[in-house]
Amino acid sequence: MNQTSFLTCMEIVIYAIPVYSSTICIILMILTYQDSTCSEEKGIRWVLIFYYLFALTIWAGTILFNYQSELFIYLNPLFYLSLLLASVTLYHFIYNLTASQETPNFPAWHYVPPLILCAIIFVWSLFIPYEVQNAIVSSSANIIPEYRYYYMFYESKHVMRILYLIVYVLLSMKTLWSYNLFVKRRYPADYKRYTFWLWYLIGLSIVILLVAMISSLGSHAHMNKLLRNIFIVLFIACGHVVMSYKVMRRNYFLNFSESITTSNPDDEDIGDIEPADYQTNPIGSQIERSSVTRYQRNADTEIFAPFPILNKRNFENYMKKNKPYLDPKYQITDLVEQLKVNRTYISRFINTEYGVNFNRYLNQCRLQELAILQRLPSNKNKELRELVSKAGFGSFRSYLRAKQSEEEQ
After folding, report:
1. How crowded is residue 52: how many other Cβ atoms within 10 Å of its Cβ?
2. Is the pTM of this model over 0.70?
3. Could you give the CA distance from residue 96 to residue 104 in angstroms, rounded to a whole number?
4. Measured between alpha carbons, how far is 165 from 248 in angstroms, rounded to an integer?
5. Start-to-end C-alpha separation, the chain
């Protein structure tokens, strides 16, 4: 294999990295879609799925453009569309994630111009001979004059991409700046944890913008181009992974400006509660809304609240009433889903209030349940293994480990 062939193979592998990362992230978003706790979360994941689809199309199209131009001709309209809508969907994602009560729904007209341009180039290409399109894609200098307008429209994608990147980077920065100030006021100690990764996405867009502008200036040495591509694809692939990870972990703050009234004075001070909690908490006090917002669906659906009213008393009442620990397979993700709270918050809450982690807290509840079962007259003649199972332990061995762990303390 000569040096040219080796570099070609390397380029294909490099261009394929964002294709792989986009595909994996799409699969992750689909598999975790049911974990969404409200329609707004589902909407965020759908927007993210489309963003990954556009990113996948861009990089798959880049591979075809460089190495299979004959096939790229058929992908060209979709490639043009994806170049523009990738910027729109990223802004849409940030817009939904940082929306407040007063924020209107994302304007659908943002999607209209790219769709119109895609339709134009698709219909126009139906009347252009295949040989002419192939010559244009191959950057041949022998373009027939009568097709020069189609050629100019085809080449406009580079200018339009730069224009869209500039516009939507600025819009995203404006939106994220207001969101950053709000979160910083509410969580001065931890706000970076909820905003830094979003700024990373903005930085990613700026890097793509710079690369697009540099690429439009002219050709570069093959090796310099290869090194530049390695940097950009790794940067983009990391962005894909970060977005999926942060969304799946709910490491964000849905900024709902709602009023919370509690029926018990003891519940008024809720402290510094973590973000990403939306629905009326099943263990909380009554939560009311002062007005109809963009997140209110109809009178029959559950209302949303920005934070759970969670304290030790309410939490223990919930655990005693529902006894979720009786399920041997019960996990912290199940509790997050039921209470509509952030996983990090509930884990920290249990650790702070009880001095143990979540699994050990469950086992303590099960040991208490077992003690209650053993005192019941109806269980007097029953074997310990049977009562251990009823108390929520998955096996007798699990019970022995939990008992030993408590005795050692």
Report:
1. 25
2. no
3. 10
4. 26
5. 66
Residue-wise pLDDT for 45-60, tens only, equals 999 999 999 999 999 9
- Are 333 and 357 spatial neighbours (Cβ–Cβ below 8 Å)? no
Closest CA to 105 of 181, 47, 183: 47
Distance CA(294)–CA(272), nearest Å, equals: 25
Buried b / exposed e over 123-152, threshold 16 CB at 10 Å, is eebeebeeebbebbbeeeeeeeeebeebbe
Give the list of residues 6+ apart from residue 150 with CB closer than 8 angstroms, or none: 124, 125, 128, 132, 136
Task: Report which of 304, 272, 301 is spatially closest to residue 289, judged by C-alpha positions.
Answer: 304
For 218-242, letters b (16+ CB in 10 Å) and e give eeeeeeeeeeebeebbebbbebbeb
Q: Which two tokens stand for residue 345?
A: 């918050």
* Distance between CA atoms of residues 306 and 280, nearest Å: 9
Judged against a pLDDT cut of 80, whether residue 169 lies above it is answered with yes
State the amino acid at position 116 in one-letter form.
I
State pLDDT tens for residues 232-275: 888 889 989 999 998 888 777 766 433 333 333 333 333 333 44
The amino acid that residue 297 corresponds to is: R
Q: Is the pLDDT of residue 332 over 80?
A: yes
Calpha distance 322→119 (Å, rounded): 56
Secondary structure of 111-144 in the HEC alphabet? HHHHHHHHHHHHHHHCCCCHHHHHHHHCCCCCCC
